[in-house]
UniProtKB/TrEMBL annotation:
Keywords: Methyltransferase, S-adenosyl-L-methionine, Transferase. Pfam families: Dimerisation, Methyltransf_2. GO terms for molecular function: O-methyltransferase activity; protein dimerization activity. It comes from Sorangium cellulosum. One of its GO terms (biological process) is methylation. InterPro entries: COMT-like (IPR016461), COMT_C (IPR001077), COMT_dimerisation (IPR012967), SAM-dependent_MTases_sf (IPR029063), WH-like_DNA-bd_sf (IPR036388), WH_DNA-bd_sf (IPR036390). Residues 154-318 form the O-methyltransferase C-terminal domain. This is SAM-dependent methyltransferase. PROSITE patterns: SAM_OMT_II. It comes from the Bacteria. SUPFAM superfamilies: S-adenosyl-L-methionine-dependent methyltransferases, Winged helix' DNA-binding domain.
Length: 335
């Protein structure tokens, strides 16, 4: 029996993993009650924070202690302040806010608790599926994750020299918040963009894109990507970002064929997703993401580079370039 104190300490990696849900729950509570926003607005004591957030004193103190323990808050002589990361990412209304992600944690934790059952059966818990257009999860999620796609969209502008190519026509299928359209239209004042997504998501996207001052060149088409026509030879650039992981290989091939048909000769399809290496290594987030797809989708997964190459070739693309990024996501450029 191993009695090495260092191995059995609270800092032990397995111990930290076993209690990782503590951190998730604290972040969920902090964002749900807008603690970081109240602190940003000048509430610094437990009393003032509790009053502003509508919390009990006991509850506020427990939450503040936990957030200090996570390094998201600091405390000095009874006065609390946001860390640099919390100030940038956990305050409502800031450009790089990830508050929405924090507020979806509680529902996610309930679903993840069913993972032992899902890995046994190979199917998601059917009572909690979110693959429906009217599920409020999508409206919360798309704006929550928009900041994570902004650097990828800027890389697309650079890689395709989009800022200097004149009146580009852009198609974004499953575009969510519209972040790719917002960035591309901001870089190229002659470009136009069309987004295909569910009606409730498109409603969110129109408001989001309007904040960038480019709404007059952005339009939406409401519909399911599997059933909605993308048109023929209408677009110079097509975007398919963080959508392929929801679908089966067969479905992705069919969608890529539609996207190729929608592109003009010489047009480029941009795919972004959490993609595994061919030997099933890669970003830790991408590797763990496969389990999330088991829980959330009927046939989705974290797919390999080889899978995307095969699907794109089957769809008629001749040149496929796979580009790692500084984020967990990978970009693919196919022509």
């Amino acid at each position: 029996m191993d009695t090495d104190g260092a191995r059995l300490s609270p800092e032990n990696a397995i111990f930290q993993l076993a209690n990782g849900y503590w951190a998730s729950a604290l972040l969920a509570a902090g964002t749900t009650h807008s603690l970081f926003t109240h602190i940003d607005r000048g509430m610094q004591t437990v009393e003032s924070i509790a009053e502003a957030a509508g919390l009990s004193m006991r509850g506020a103190q427990a939450l503040l202690d936990g957030l200090v323990g996570l390094g998201l808050l600091t405390v000095n002589d009874g006065r609390y302040a946001n860390s640099a990361a919390a100030s940038q990412h956990l305050v409502d209304g800031k450009p790089m806010s990830l508050v929405g992600i924090g507020r979806t944690i509680a529902d996610g934790m309930r679903l993840w608790s069913k993972l032992p059952e899902a890995v046994k059966t190979g199917i998601p818990p059917t009572t909690e599926r979110v693959e429906t257009p009217d599920h409020p999860f999508w409206e919360e999620l798309v704006t929550a994750i928009a900041p994570t796609s902004a650097p990828l969209a800027r890389r697309v502008v650079e890689r395709l020299d989009a800022a200097r190519r004149g009146p580009l026509a852009i198609l974004d299928v499953g575009g969510g918040s519209g972040i790719y359209s917002a960035v591309l239209l901001g870089a190229n004042r002659e470009a136009t963009a069309t987004q295909v997504d569910w009606a409730n998501v498109n409603r969110v996207a129109r408001a989001f894109v309007a904040r960038f001052g480019v709404a007059d060149r952005f339009k939406t088409i409401d519909g399911n990507l599997h059933e909605t026509s993308f048109g023929e030879a209408r677009f110079d650039i097509a975007i398919f970002s963080h959508v392929a992981h929801h679908d089966s290989p067969e479905s992705n091939v069919a969608t890529f064929r539609k996207l190729r048909a929608a592109l003009r000769p010489g047009g480029t399809l941009v795919v972004s997703d959490l993609i595994l290496n061919d030997d099933r290594t890669g970003s830790p987030l991408a590797l763990m993401f496969h389990a999330k797809m088991l829980l959330y989708t009927a046939s989705g997964g974290a797919w390999r580079r080889a899978d995307y190459r095969s699907w794109l070739e089957q769809a008629g693309f001749k040149d496929v370039v796979i580009e790692p990024t500084q984020t967990p996501a990978t970009l693919i450029f196919a022509t």
